[in-house]
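Quick question: what would this complex look like in 3D?
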Amino acid sequence: MLDGRLSLLTPEGISLALTPAGPGRRALAWGIDLAAWSLAVILLNMLVALLFGTDSTGRGFYLAGLFLTYWGYPVFCEVYCGGRTLGKRWMGLEVVRADGLPVGWRESVLRNLLLAADFLPFLYACGLVSMLCDRQFRRLGDLVAGTLVIYRTQPKRRAAVADVAPQPLPWPLSPREQRALLDLVERAGRLSPERAHELADLAEPLTGLRGAASLARLRAFAAGLTR
Amino acid sequence: MKQKQFEAQYGALWEQITQQLDGGKGADPTHFPAQYRQLCQCLALARQRGYSPSLTDYLHGQVLAAHRRLYGTPAERPLTLRHWLGRELPQRVRQEWRLLLLALLAFWGSTLLVGLLVAHDPQWAYSFSSAGELSQYQSMYAANKGKLGRTGGEDIAMFGFYIWNNVSICFRTFAGGLFLGIPALISLVGNGIHGGVIAAWLSQFDITRINFWSFVVTHSSFELTGLILSGLAGMRLGLSWLNPGRLSRRQALMLASQRMYPVLVGAALLTVLAAFFEAFWSAAGTIPPAAKFTVGGICWAAVIAFFALAGRERHAAR
């Protein structure tokens, strides 16, 4: 199948599909993280000014805090919050190891320290070139640490099987055709009626009907397949 | 089997898996592996029998989450850090003795060369550094009482500054190593030249000589080692990319980064330790220079002995 998904084979013989995220989405997530970090630094600055006034001790705490947040924030988020910084959470992304498992300290530290290498020569140019050259959109830090940034798969709810009187198919369908039929019936609720009818028209050789009648017949076939 | 029968038969199992993933009360983790294998079988069956996409997607999501829970749980290794620092760090550094030699040569070679040049003819200092900077350093170390080596500020303020500045330099040197090791080498040579100029310049005045050397002697043992180690780790990455041997370049990079990780952690810790000494010990004007030289000598000896001796196997046959 021609899509951007990456297929992982597990020891149980199941293939899991992961979808690597591209540079645009990741740049947005990075922008959100930068904004959050800047805000946190401003707040830290105000807090220090409040606690220590103009005393230079405050500046020491401020700089130590700057260091911890600058280098530590992404690592901490990735290790303890399921591979997601705030920006990645917002954009629906997460960092995983190349084998699809959550990242640990080593991977996270390496990939985030090498952000400094990705930044060179200006504005993440190296990282962008690396992402565009790599099939899985990995920047240099990802290549070295063996990590991936993927779209987080939302836990899905099962759709209830349609409750209409089932009808037998006029002739047997192949598994792929059955799947296409079930897919259409499940998606019909989320499409506009015109589009749903237009799609149902395509099944005229099977149903012998057009429009809403064809869709209703397809629902009955789907019920026959699933019940 | 029709989809509805299938759902009826395995629905309870899927509920249990959901409970396990949510960490619910009724979940017994000892059953989880068996339940997970059953779930994988459900997904395979659902795919092969062409059940509806929403069911396969649901099962796929569950398998993915359960897979991560089962295989992604890290083993508890409470002594990892001690093991790394006590054994792996010195072992790896000794294994990379050629690169260590190169890093030492880059740093100390440029320091000595420029230092001797400036000591021979102080005019040369102006080729590497501006007159304003030199006079600023001179005034920093000329003070007899109070704090040495700074333009102002308290211990804690300077501690924050050293952490932010020096550890960041350490990390950037490592990251720069990725590009064939050249930026890391440039960073080492650049820092070496700077140190050489300042040391030689301040050594020629009686008023700054003792102050300067007693200031740097203690924390330099940790700080310079940290810098050299981070440069070494960075250069290892760059070289593994240039010369991957029998591995693919990506695998060679990954392997090198995994091997160099303890070295990087050690370099960062040494730099933080150096910041402590630099802020709270080196600058104190009340401690006599003789004490500083003694402690500094002990620190240098400890660092060298650690990297030369620590982590050696007692029984070579093991």
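Answer marked as accepted. The CA atoms of residues 237 and 258 of chain B lie 10 Å apart.
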